[in-house]
Write a structure and sequence with these properties.
Structural class: alpha/beta
Keywords: Oxidoreductase
Distance between the termini: 45 Å
Protein name: NADP-dependent 3-hydroxy acid dehydrogenase YdfG
Number of domains: 1
Strand order of the largest sheet: 3-2-1-4-5-6-7
Helix content: 40-55%
Family: Belongs to the short-chain dehydrogenases/reductases (SDR) family.
InterPro entries: NAD(P)-bd_dom_sf, Sc_DH/Rdtase_CS, SDR_fam
Oligomer: single chain
Strand content: 5-15%
Radius of gyration: 17 Å
Number of strands: 7
Number of helices: 8
CATH topology: Rossmann fold
CATH architecture: 3-Layer(aba) Sandwich
GO molecular function: oxidoreductase activity, acting on the CH-OH group of donors, NAD or NADP as acceptor
Largest sheet: 7 strands, parallel
Length: 250
């Protein structure tokens, strides 16, 4: 059986990726902080696609929780073919001199350290099998820094650099690494960034058609469906109306 592990699978890109891989017959390990929501996703996918879905509830920022949860997986579930490091977030928009340092910690701990904690646990399993594919979800913010995006942009630039480093270090083990950098996508992203302000979140997508979670999940799966000798290292995907993190035609 093929197995995909997807972090942050309770909504947005993560949930869409879980559905896309389940549709293709992958069994899943899905993680997130919201136990009830994870259970809902599990039940839906198992019923609709007749695959096995295991849920692990933890915060990727918590190193001990990551190691304990993933360490609880039985040997059969450790044969992970695809790891999608999706868990991530942006918090607020503020200039560097007025930034909330707690928000900074949350973004860096989730987007960078959380990705590292999960990867550090899973990679040895892939290394031992001499196969696997890691997909790191970045952002156009990794490529183009925009006003008041400072720390979020830095965290996604780190994902970009880490993806390149992983690709180099894992070459001897036949492990693929792909960074997928989405542009404007209408998920819970802006609602989280603006701390529940639905009106402000909605305004982000006015005047153009943004990406959906499904659009990004389709791209992620495509990257993972290529022949064994083909690896997409780095991919930027945006709405047609968006050129980069800064330029959007509305």
């Amino acid at each position: 059986m093929k197995i995909a592990l997807i972090t942050g699978a309770t909504a947005g890109f993560g949930e869409a990726c879980a559905e896309r891989f389940a549709k293709e017959g992958y069994h899943l390990v899905i993680t997130g902080r919201r136990a009830e929501r994870l259970q809902e996703v599990q039940q839906q996918l198992e019923q609709q696609y007749k695959v096995k879905v295991k849920t692990l509830v933890f915060d990727v920022r918590d190193k001990a929780a990551v190691e304990t949860a993933l360490g609880s997986l039985e040997d059969a579930w450790r044969a992970i073919d695809v790891l999608v490091n999706n868990a991530g977030l942006a918090l607020d928009l503020s200039t560097i001199d007025e930034g909330n340092t707690e928000d900074w910690d949350t973004m860096l701990d989730t987007n960078v350290k959380g990705l590292l904690y999960v990867s550090r646990t899973v990679i040895p399993w892939m290394r031992d099998r001499r196969k696997g594919h890691i997909v790191n979800i970045g952002s156009t913010a990794a490529k183009t820094v925009y006003a008041k995006g400072n720390v979020y942009c830095a965290s996604k630039a780190a994902v970009d650099a880490l993806s390149q480093g992983m690709r180099i270090d894992l070459l001897p083990y036949n492990i693929k690494v792909t960074a997928v950098h989405p542009g404007a996508a209408e998920t819970e992203f802006s609602l989280v960034r603006f701390k529940g302000d639905a009106s402000r979140a909605k305004d982000v997508y006015k005047g153009f058609t943004p990406l959906s979670g499904k659009d990004v999940a389709d791209v992620v799966f495509y990257c993972c469906s290529l022949p064994p000798h083909v690896c997409i290292n780095d991919l930027v995907v945006t709405p047609t109306a968006q050129a980069n993190a800064y330029y959007i035609h509305r």
